[in-house]
């Protein structure tokens, strides 16, 4: 995991290397200062030698200035390295998600991806800064201080040898208990983000059904779980400080008591073992050693959280898209003809290695659609209409058989080339925050104003756009909340038309449009898009009645295929739906 994450330090590697060097120099200077203090006391103050006091005073001042300089520089380079690392990591994750197929995205919830891009990256960023700064400083300070302490008086330094194993064992037990809790907490964060996102996205539904109390209860339950687990983790981690303080004060008391006895026994000149200045330096080293241990305990706590976060980040980075370009892709689409050849499809391919343990969504589909045809698809909810058309631009890959566009297997195309020639207007119409023009240019970023107006005219969107005060510069709120469902659908159709595709797929994309406007859109398609293959999924038979071919789907199978007149004679499902809608004036298939 560390090896995979470290490569994202990238261009900030120089700061990541400079920081430990500066921190090491800072630690060395802090070790030298107590030795200089001991010399100042023993040779200057105790001896009453003013020249020695001045000499060591100047040296101490220089050492303090150097320590401060190294510390300031390290404080500047460490954030640059860690922030740059986090930037690269977020960017790599975001770009990776963009490469995912629908099948890959299905494996991660939206809330989980958001948590990994935010909270988890922040944890890893903080841990990285700690690694290049405190993780170098603390062990360095510990080692240097121990060496210095043993050089001053090796017998008195044995106090550390007795205390350190106790501290190490206590830290090991605490970390072992805390790590599983942090793992659980981050998974609960995913659920919390899902609850918040769902609530905000569907806030109008929540209010219209007066379900605020239910949503509050859901949020409170998940938030309570985080509180409970975090409290347990923090309570366990809270034992670190008392353990550190107990060890610190034990060492200081033992060194002070044993050291004082040694000074008294040896005389103030230290002839038999220890001087006053040396005792003071030993007390200082005790503080430095135990502060280093305290920093190491903080490192372990942060690393425990970062390890859990790092593993979740690597899951995203290691996820390979199930849909990739072939080695020598076809770079052009000849026409809009479509062939389904013994096509079968399953959403899951994880069980039994080949998907044999998952439910079959489509089975044995054989269809031929000529370029330029208008094709209608109807079927009950769950009959796999959307699944069928999503195979055309390779949003999913077939499990069996093949799908061909322009006579070429879609798996042989360059994906960008294929998708540029297949425009889809999905069931869930999505508009982004920005002006109407900016949203429409998703279809063609280089589209002229005239092309935009023409596409809107074909989609019957121009009539309401021109009524807006700002026209095509009208600002669309996030999710298109300031336009109606029918207006949103027509804008999405216009956006798809700007791609000038060879295949246009409307997946129930006129359901919120009145029948008159629906008919006008279909009529405009006939005159404006004669060479484009048009596939229209609809609930209303009136929306597909005049199609060159109508496909009736039933539980993942093609129940019937033909014109309206042919299906009225040969297909019971189609006939029943037609009669039901005309008799009752209904528009649903159920």
Question: Could you characterize the architecture of this molecule?
Answer:
With 590 residues, the chain is of the alpha/beta class. 61% of the residues lie in helices and 11% in strands. The protein has 20 helices and twelve strands. It has helices at 2-6, 13-45, 50-99, 102-107, 110-132, 134-152, 158-201, 203-208, 212-237, 240-266, 276-318, 385-390, 415-420, 436-440, 449-458, 462-465, 485-497, 515-528, 564-570, 572-584; strands at 338-346, 360-369, 374-379, 400-405, 408-409, 422-425, 434-435, 475-476, 503-507, 533-537, 549-554, 557-562. Strands 6-9-10-3-11-12 form a six-stranded mixed sheet. Helix 18 links the parallel strand 9 and strand 10 (533-537). Helix 3 (50-99) runs antiparallel to helix 5 (110-132), helix 5 runs parallel beside helix 6 and helix 7 packs antiparallel against helix 9. The radius of gyration is 36 Å and the shape is elongated. Residues 268-272, 350-357 and 585-590 have low confidence and may be disordered.
